[in-house]
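From: lab user (bench 3)
To: helpdesk
Subject: output format question, protein + magnesium ion

Hello, I'm new to running complex predictions and I'm not sure whether the block I got back is the full result or only part of it. Here's what I submitted:
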Amino acid sequence: MDSKKNSDDPQNQATAVVVDISQVDDPLQKSAERVLPAGETPDIYIPTRGTGATPYTSRSAKKKKLGFLGLISNDIGIDLGTANTLVWVRGEGIVVNEPSVVAIERSTGRPMAVGSAAKEMIGRTPGEIIAIRPLKDGVIADFETSEKLLSDVIHRVVRRRYLMKPRIVISVPSGITEVEKRAVRDSAENAGARDVFLLPEPMAAAIGVGLAVEQPTGLMIIDIGGGTSEIAVIALNGIVTNTSIRIAGDEMSESIITYLKKNFNLLIGELTAEEIKIQIGSAFPMEKELTMEVKGRDLVAGIPKTLKLSSSQVREALQEPIDSIVDAVRESLEKTPPELASDILERGIILTGGGALLRGMEKRLRQETNLPVFVAEDPMTCVVRGCGAALENFQQYSKVMMKSRRD
Ligand SMILES: Nc1ncnc2c1ncn2[C@@H]1O[C@H](COP(=O)(O)OP(=O)(O)OP(=O)(O)O)[C@@H](O)[C@H]1O
Ligand SMILES: [Mg+2]
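Helpdesk reply: Thanks, we reran it on our side. This is the complete output you should expect:
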């Protein structure tokens, strides 16, 4: 079932959200429609930068439907990612989609900007302001700043509108430690949550894609985010095998920085590296290779320099992190019980997360595994949509969530 007829065309790949789950033989997979109805225009606009075109749902239209219940109780799903934080609100859909960056005034510790505005400051801040990414490798690395980030996004949503504190489902990497779990829970509680439930990221992604996680038939999800790549086989509401590596989009960008430094003595920043990856990065040879002009600082002469970079060079730069992801997928398949392996052979592998948008990622994995591989629809929002779907069907999914406890 070759469902990506046009993906060979680099023109298509450039905008490449390859929407293919409709071709997977699974009738229970339409959750995207539940939270992102087509044709609605948002009446709020929260700017996002670059990477994910996220449809927003209308607040007022949905709020009316919820009536009194909508005023007293609110459920919020949060994907607190290394790169991006997304918030889903019951009856409204995705209302926040912002980079996980906070700009802080050094002397007072006061947050100056959160999200896109803060991300634009990375590598450009005057001494007095620092732009911090508080999550690393999918988990909270800077507790205080994460709390500021969470509190900002929760307050944008909750502000004076509800009588009760929200119940929150937050996705977390499946390999999260107890200490890391506590950090997430405490952050969310301090930021105003009533109850906090943690949902393993691959499970959230699978639910968000609309896959039937409660069935005995196994399915494989690969979520390639900014900090972690999670590979999970899911069946009967549980994660049967799971491989989580702390190599994902961030490492890819870092590899581009290292490559340019080593081969061209050109120093570039984090944001430029990400731009290169998004504009001309690939995991598989393209029919028509692309080029791009890159500006940076010449390390020898110490002055700004421009370089013409080709997509094949970028592919070379990305080789190491991509090989690591491929190895992790192979390892995961080796660990998969044979019955479930045959399910995956039939149903294929679903890719989610921003890394799924890298050109040719699915082709590379298809070539390496001989399995059908599909990119989910709107891959960067699958996890938060999964948190939302889990809240909407709380009873059904309570088994897959962990309620965080004090001790
Ligand atoms: N078109 C694209 N091509 C390649 N990479 C992309 C593209 N768009 C976004 N990315 C990368 O995807 C990553 C962000 O993905 P995502 O939002 O899923 O991560 P996250 O959920 O914040 O991280 P994690 O799940 O690891 O905590 C970034 O590294 C970003 O550079
Ligand atoms: Mg993620």
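A quick orientation on your result: Residues 349 and 373 are 5 Å apart (CA to CA). Let us know if anything else is unclear.
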